[in-house]
Amino acid sequence: MTAPARPVxxxxxxxxxxxxxIEAKRHKKRRVQxxxxxxxxxxxxxxxxxxxxxxxxxxxxxxxxEDDQARFALSDMxxxxxxxxxxxxxxxxxxxxxxGGDIGSMAVHGTINDLAVGGAKPLYLSCGLILEEGLPxxxxxxxxxxxxxxxxxxxxxxxxxxxxxxxxxxxDKLFINTAGVGVIPTGLHMxxxxxxxxxxxxxxxxxxxxxxxxxxxxGELELASPVMSDSAPLHELVQALVQAVPVxxxxxxTRGGxxxxxxxxxxxxxxxLCIDEPSVPVRSEVQGVCELLGLDPLHLANExxxxxxxxxxxxxxxxxxxxxxxxxxxxxxxxEVTSAHPGVVTIQTGFGTDRVLDMLVGEPLPRIC
Amino acid sequence: MKYVSEFRDPPAARRxxxxxxxxxxxxxxTLQGAPLKIMExxxxxxxxxxxxxxxxxxxxxxxxxxxxxxxxxxxxxxRVDDAISIATSEGVIFCTYGxxxxxxxxxxxxxxxxxxxxxxxxxxxxxxxLALARANPSRRVVFFGLGFETTAPSTALTLLQAxxxxxxNFFVFSNHVTIIPALRALLDAxxxxxDGFIGPGHVSMVIGVEPYHFIAEHYRxxxxxxxxxxxxxxxxxxxxxxxxxxGRAVVENQYSRLVSTQGNSAAQTAIHEVFKPRAHFEWRGLxxxxxxxxELQPRFARFDAEQAFRxxxxxxxxxKACQCGEVLKGQLRPYECKVFGTACTPETPIGSCMVxxxxxxxxxxxxxxxxxxxRASGLKVHP
Lengths: 369, 383
Ligand code: SF4
Prior knowledge:
The complex is a heterodimer.
Chain A: H1 6-27, H2 46-59, H3 74-78, E1 83-91, E2 97-98, E3 101-102, H4 103-116, E4 121-132, H5 137-154, E5 157-166, E6 174-184, E7 200-203, H6 209-217, H7 235-244, E8 249-252, H8 257-269, E9 272-276, H9 284-293, E10 306-310, H10 315-323, E11 332-338, E12 345-348, E13 354-356
Helix pairs in contact in A: 2-5, 4-5, 4-7, 7-10
Chain B: H1 2-5, H2 10-25, E1 36-42, H3 43-51, E2 62-69, H4 77-87, E3 92-96, H5 110-115, E4 120-122, H6 126-135, E5 140-147, H7 152-165, E6 170-176, H8 179-188, E7 196-200, H9 201-207, H10 213-219, E8 223-226, H11 230-245, E9 251-253, H12 265-274, E10 275-277, E11 280-283, E12 287-290, E13 294-296, H13 305-308, H14 324-328, H15 360-366, H16 369-376
Helix pairs in contact in B: 2-11, 7-12
The structure holds iron/sulfur cluster.
Iron/sulfur cluster is lined by residues 321-324, 327, 334, 337, 339-340, 344, 350-351, 353-354, 361 of chain B.
């Protein structure tokens, strides 16, 4: 055996090993080391990749597409129904976490509900994050984990996303945009234009819980009240309802509360809507907060409540179908559609009087005295 | 909410309405059919009346007149302009109660100034503003002091606290007003068309019942201090009507569960320690009223925003179209104003009665359009 060119080979090997080590290290999943979000986390470089690999992918069960797009087989979707439903919403709540939920679960539930109330089976979500520099990483991790859990529990997948970091002061900690895709079974058409006089209006439970929980959670009111947000995905409840009865129109009661939706319906159907105040389910704690601040629970936001209109003959069956689902336990008939006073919503008070129920102008602001 | 439902019992309401009806039938023949005008002084009552549709329960001969007791509604244009001028000064955090945000000044509102970049924050109490001052020592934090004797004590107590702590960047822009001079000015107005009053319950918790006696004695009008629940309001109306048919005029206290004859002396002391009456204060729609506003005592001059900032302090006339004054004096029903519901709506208020939900015009617009439609078209108000 001739003596090998040992030094050269050894050097070569050492270099190979070193390079391999570097490559391995470069590809190794690293934990995000920082305590707070920094500009670099949105810079498209290493820090951003770490953020995605350490926080976002695990939270979403690695379901997010590696490519810049998610791809689906049209045939799978077509098997579910004839119409694709597509929606988007952006979530900007303060504080980020509150009793009963957080901005992450709310962003999932809200978009699922936007799809569900059109009758769609929700399938896929996107997640766009706008992070403000300085947002604690632990808080972000908590919220993303909650978001992933909410999606898993609802049986939808978060399949694509985007992350941007903005300088301190250019956003309020964290904004989340979710878009959602679902499929509407063939033959289902719900619209406020289909409303007819005599239809009854139903809601699946107590109103104003989310709005009241947020007002209290902001901590500006020195109130301690056990009000929880009602944030929840409504698609299963909706499925149960549309399978049981013909539904003319449906809407989730988010910002602006019941009052906003009934006014929009009255306007687009050019019919009168009449709400029976004593039948509207409201938790006594929520009523109490409203009394104190001069607000109306019918104007407060909900994140797990819907309004459905069904022909009167199906009212009992609709109630029955909703009450069988845990999210519909407190379902109630709250009003009806009439041909009197087109375009105007009235409310029958417990006093046997009636008055107009209008939309709120601007935000719900507490009165001085 | 048991405590509340007790005061919202429909059968009890029907009994009170029946009482009112039978009392009204005892009026002298010459007065049957003529309106009996009762003013609810306080915006809180206006709100309750509309929210529960009480007007539609009452006999049509009882006409409710919505008085000047909404602190936001009586804020004159010039003072809103002053507030905006302070809010847009360098380095200022301007703190206000929510419902004052949208009151129109001559060019814009505080909400408008906020959108243009002023740091205007909604607070729930003056102590929130003081906390902001502590947290932002490099900024000047100004609290927009608004309201009657209901809110003046908490402004006063906050100033006493700021003085104790030696906070040097906290200021109050006082627009506090007092109810008695305003009522006197109303009663002195030749064109006032009011037969009796429902008195402001919250104000009375502070000032008690005695300060109203001149109204019964000198002006011969029944005056009943009233709570804010629907049954409180109906019962107070019944008490006013009873005095009217019996030809009496006294001060009565329907709200005795919370209002004592003497009021709350600690709150009164705080007001007097911190504030003194201004020579004159302007009210939207009512003009200048002597000794009706409160300014800071000299001892608190260093907290006084009117001294720390150069405010325009101009008296700006109400917009020409605005008939808030006539509405506040009971000469016009809100919907009889020329611009009601057209140029003047809650989205685009011209007068301030259209801003807060306690304002008569906003209450009619948001809650009472049915009533006004029925009235205007000569239909029965009762559904
Ligand atoms: S409608 Fe507008 S301008 Fe007219 S009285 Fe009412 S608030 Fe004033």
